Amino acid sequence: MAHTFGELVVGGVLVAPFVTYLVAALVVVIALRPLLHVAGLARMFSHDALAQLSLFVTILCLLMLLF
Amino acid sequence: MVATTAQQPFTIARLPASSWTLAVRVWLATILALFVSFWLQLEAPFTAAVTVAILAEPTRGQALDKAAFRLTGTIVGVAASIAITGLFSQARDLILVASAVWLGLCVFSAKLLDGNRAYAAVLSGYTVANIAIQQIDSPQHVFEASVERGAAIAVGIVSIAVVNVLMSAPDGQSRLAVQLAAIHRRVRDYASAALRGEADSATFLALLRDIVGLRPDIASVALESSSGTVVSAAARSAAVSLVAELQVARALNAGEADLEPKASAWKMRELLRGDARVCQDLLALRSVKWPSRLQRAPLYRSVRIAADTAVRAALWFATASTLFVWTGWSAASASLYLVATVAALGVTTPNPRVFTAIALVGAPIAVVLAGILEFILLDGTDAFLLLAIALAPFTIGAALLLPSQSPVWSGLGRINLIAIPTILAPSNPQVYSTRHSFFTSVFIVAAAAVLLAAQMLISPVSYEKQRIQLLAEARGELEPGNRNGETPEEATFRDASRIGQFLSAEGAQDNRAITKMLSCFDRSAMIRLCSAKLTQLVDGPIAPLARQAHEAIVTRDTATLRAVARALRDKASHKNSSEAETAACLVLTSDAIDRDNGLDSSREAT
After folding, report:
1. β-strand pairing of A8-10 with A13-15
2. Facing residues of B12 across strands?
């Protein structure tokens, strides 16, 4: 069965579902930041920024898969 | 004998490798932004390329911070554009007046802020000129134009963010830690010189300016990583503690004859306490931990200077609008947008007129370079790969100038980086129109020329006026109390930021005024420290003396202050008791007030 995407319409403008997922993933990553600091993400990886980008992509894909 | 060697940075063509990596990152991000914009079939792909050019910053944190404020500023500007268009639709003159007023309001806000916050404020101002005025003849398209601009900006932001991450753009956090540690060493050297009576005001001012100048960088590391907020808090705390230590070190300067040996001992203890606090904050910064005390780094805000600048910016825009309306060119709205942009961005620099002059010099250079790119190198091609290769020398060349210490070279680099994609206006398929390029070029140069003429007619707030105003405000602070629950250290940092603004207005060359500013700084810092000590004694057995001292501070009655100090010293159980410390502090405060009054009377005598 094909995956259906929820439509978001703001003031008569149809927002692409991908944009909604992008914003949602960004909100999740920002909300996770204090936890990541406590967990010591910066010390776990030699390239902290790349690890965070990978985490963002993972969350984005998970959101698209699950919702 | 110990031989030391300084590590030389790796250079290519006499330019540091960091400049080359920044330039290559900017080029790759520009290509990525254009590619994605073409793929998404956006109306104005050049806006994405211009966003990359604006966000071309040396560290990842600075770029992300500026991106966040660019997005915020655009959203506010778009909302204002829709409101202005809705209110004054079909009324050209009213739209222009409303835009000038809005620009003035945004410039006013920008002058009360610094760094990327100030940039966001001016961006909100000139976004109206871009959207409401560009669409003046078709108000029904304002919302579409806003969405297009927002989408292109988002593409530009994502492009530079991804390229910065993948190409390991430098980390602002480690750089900040190194800078603060270096400043700490210099503050210690200054304190040693002060103990020997060899410290000079020039070193003090240079240190103060360097610490206060780090404020925007400290704010920008917050977005850099998951620990960014913690690093930013630790760095902010370290900067505030450094200013406090520097102030005590200045008070130690034996050049200012200190006849009270107890006061000297107290100052020494305060210096050691201050140094210990700085060490703690720097340790928290290095080990990425919350500092023991969370401190704010408040910025001094001169409402009068902000209002003066805002009125002038609105008048420059109004003058340029009147001229362009009078010429009757239908496409002059593009020039008006550039007038608003250069005028608004100029007020975030120390000298707006110099900024416009650099824009006027840079614009023809960008026009020639864009002409070479469009009609000699590309010359009719429509292949994206060729566009990417042809853009390389121009983008990399302009980006190489960005890290230059000289504001002229850095400004020329930024203008070329922004103007070349604007004039070229890449589209799919590319339109090679000499007429379009000619008119765009004429409007860009005309905008800079008209704005410079307006700034000649209505001068920006002069350095001298700014210095007089800042000095008057410093002297007018009769009760340098703690605003919004500020600690004495935070309030001293705010005063230090005022000295930073004073120095930006060529204050270092005005010896008499800078002496008075420093005298006010010393007096206010001592009064705050003294008030804090007295507050601790208010609930104790010597509360009446503490209250008497407090009233004497308000009335600047130094004789009473010294009498209270003597009484406190008599009551002190031992030399390190809080009574003895407060007595020493009261003596120093009396000295600072007397010195300040001495300056006042010498000024009145001349």
Report:
1. antiparallel
2. B15
Alpha-carbon gap, residue B513 to B503, rounded angstroms: 11
**A16 token code pair:** 């692409």
- Closest Cα in chain A to B64: A49
DSSP string across chain A: -PPP---EEETTEEEPHHHHHHHHHHHHHHHHHHHHHHHTHHHH-S-HHHHHHHHHHHHHHHHHHH-
Chain A CA closest to residue B227:
A37
Q: Across the strands, what pairs with A15?
A: A8
What Rg, from alpha-carbon coordinates, does chain A have? 15
Separation CA B74–CA B66 (nearest Å): 12
- Burial of residue B476 (number of CB atoms within 10 Å: 0-12, 13-18, 19+): exposed
- Residue B95 above 50 pLDDT? yes
Separation of first and last alpha carbons in chain B:
54
Which residue from B minimizes the CA distance to A12?
Answer: B143
The predicted pLDDT at position B356 comes to: 95
Which of B231, B223, B219, B205 lies closest to B498, judged by CA? B205
Question: pLDDT digits over B259-272, tens only?
Answer: 566 667 777 888 89
Tell me, what's the pLDDT at B6? 53
Any A CB within 8 A of B147 CB = yes
The pLDDT of residue B479 is 59
How many CA atoms, within 13 angstroms, populate the side-chain half-sphere of residue B143? 7
- B484: tokens are 């919004």
Residues 6+ apart with CB under 8 A from B335: B320, B324, B329, B443, B444, B446, B447, B450
Res B237 pLDDT > 90 = yes
Greatest pairwise CA separation for chain A in angstroms: 46
- B86 touching chain A per CB within 8 A: no
How is chain A split into domains, by residue range?
A: 15-66
**What sign for the dihedral angle of Cα B378, B384, B390, B391?**
positive
Taking only residues 38 to 57 of chain A, the set having a beta carbon closer than 8 angstroms to any beta carbon of chain B reads 41-42, 47-50, 52-53
Assess whether pLDDT exceeds 50 at residue B2. no
User: Is pLDDT of B255 > 60?
Assistant: no
Interatomic CA distance for residues B258 and B583, integer angstroms: 15
Q: Is B16 helix (H, G, I), strand (E, B) or coil?
A: strand
Domains annotated for chain B, with CATH where assigned, are 12-170+302-457 (no CATH), 172-286 (1.20.1420.10), 471-605 (no CATH)
Hey, what are B472's tokens? 């008057």
pLDDT in tens, B26-52: 999 999 999 999 998 888 899 999 999
Half-sphere exposure (Cβ direction) of B500: Cα atoms closer than 13 Å: 21
Chain A residues with CB-CB distance to B143 below 8 A: 11, 13
Q: Measuring CA to CA, which residue among B111, B112, B107, B108 is closest to residue B123?
A: B107
Residue B375 DSSP class: I
The candidate with the shortest Cα–Cα distance to B563, out of B595, B586, B582, is: B586
ipTM of the complex: 0.86
Locus of tokens 């996770």: A32
Q: Which of B582, B522, B573 is nearest to B547 (CA)?
A: B582
Helices within B373-462 (DSSP H only): 384-401, 407-424, 434-457
Distance from the Cα of B225 to chain A's closest Cα (Å) equals 6
